[in-house]
Write a structure and sequence with these properties.
By secondary structure, the chain is of the alpha+beta class. Helix content is 49%, strand content 16%. The strands form three sheets. It has a four-stranded antiparallel beta sheet with strand order 2-3-7-6, with no helix packed on it. The protein has a three-stranded mixed beta sheet with strand order 1-4-5, covered by helices on one side. The longest helix is centred in the last third of the chain and has 36 residues. The radius of gyration is 21 Å and the shape is elongated.
Length: 356
Amino acid sequence: MDFSFSEEQQQLQDAISRFVQGDYSFDRRHKILKTAEGWSREVWQGLADLGVLAMNIPEADGGLGYGPIETLLAMQSAGPAMLCEPLLDSAVIATALVRDFASPEQRAELLPAMGSGERIVVLAHGEAAGRGQPVWVETSAKKSADGYVLNGHKAVVSLAPAADELLVSARVSGQPGDANGVAVFRVAPGTPGLTLKAFKTLDGRRAADLVLADVKVPASSLLGAPTTSATAAIDRALDIGLAALCAEALGVMEATVNATIDYLKTRQQFGQPIGRFQALQHRTADMLLHLEQSRSMAYLAAMHCNVADDTQRHKTLSAAKVVIGNACRFIGQQAVQLHGGMGMTEEPTSATSSSG
């Protein structure tokens, strides 16, 4: 199978790589994380200027009309920077949901603004009791005289504090676990009754738990057609996001392996680079093996994240998630052991430059 990329795809990948290498050093990332917001509007606009935020938006809606392969290249290139901005959350997952499920009028309003960086939109779907099940929605939406009233909780909504608009899933009928009866509502962060309990994640980025207590929204806030359940569209958007996350992890592992090999070539011990020791070469070979397996699975995930057959798509994406998750653990642990100066989450770049 031919895995070579077109000239346009290669240019996209190169442009993002230059951007993150030139404008998003780890020192700058640390400074951004220490701000109150935990992300940078300037960086976000830079990504918009590169066209990254518009890559999943059809040309008819003012975007670039790219697909999963271009998303893979973009996320892989951005991986080494571990961006604090909501690239995955807004430009991939929420964009896919709006693109595939919203009405033409809503697409015309939201997608150009999302592609230009003017508006950040985040999906608020996961609930604590769901344990990762996409169809588990307890949050309710009751019809009122002029709209809907939302009640419920959403757990660990990534980059919710950065959002200009939230897409909140809620059940208009049925019971938690039912595939039908789920709708999505557009909710502004400042809406009365909505509380965002913001916190830092393990890597310092921002997330929030959402509490909805009698949140009143107009009927026009309903995303898509009133009679269509959003479950399938949400499920597909999450799978597209999972494929993008696999690509980002691939970029992180590439940077980690490269930094470790560079260190083994320069760190001297007993009058020679430590990379000449056979035991360390075996470990490096195992890291490269995991990396190449992950590359194959990331490509597979990107190629199958739009497959209409839900069962086949879920199996493929789940397999990629398992292989890449295990590889991330193995490569990360080996890098810490071999490098000596590389820590767990925050200082691989500074460790590389200071060790030796």
